[in-house]
Design a protein that fits this description.
With 239 residues, the protein is α/β, with parallel strands linked by helices. Helices cover 33% and strands 13% of the residues. The longest helix is centred in the middle third of the chain and has 23 residues.
Length: 239
Amino acid sequence: MATVILVRHGRTTANASGVLAGRTPGVRLDETGATQVARTGERLAVVPLVAAVTSPLERCRQTTKAIVSAQAGALRPVTERGITECDYGDWQGRPLKELAKEKLWSTVQAQPSAVTFPGGESMVAMQARAVSAVRRRDALIEAEHGAGAVWVAVSHGDLIKSILADALGMHLDLFQRLHVDPASVSIIRYTSTRPYVLATNTHSGDLSWLAPPPAAKGTRRRRTNDAAVGGGAGPSATA
């Protein structure tokens, strides 16, 4: 039962100017974005991450660098194409206020499962590849590092929303109800029973509870796969 921390990249020049960047090369964090990801890195510094996985796009690699730099141990980022930005096709690079006038815009808002961007990817395909990549990577990390392993995946807003929707058992058509801000932290723990969504779109707060406690000598750490009736006692230093 490894735990994945989903981080959206910090604010970019495209975000600030209201342009749909998509996979456009050279889109970097702006000054606000750089400050945001430094703060996220500091927040995650108390969690000993075993892996840092990033979308190949530059804004995500910059964000990942800030997170890795704040870690006490040496960590080498790994690129995962499965969590790269949606291929928005002909929409890429256009102002959002212009796209909002397109007929397809209302479908993106109300029925994203029916959307295929002109010259690009369907939102169903986007979700399928993102969820598959994260679940596959999570299983590999748990197999290598054990049930207490915590890792970070740095990706994009719509990608993270679609991963959260899957973990919550929500239809993709409901994923616009979720919000994922730049440099925000969301957390999922996958188990053999079900995924548990531990946090969504957080910007502050202590995360030291994610650090696995040392196992007693001669014992193995174990977390139950079952949901506690009544809600349970929450995380603690000895949980």
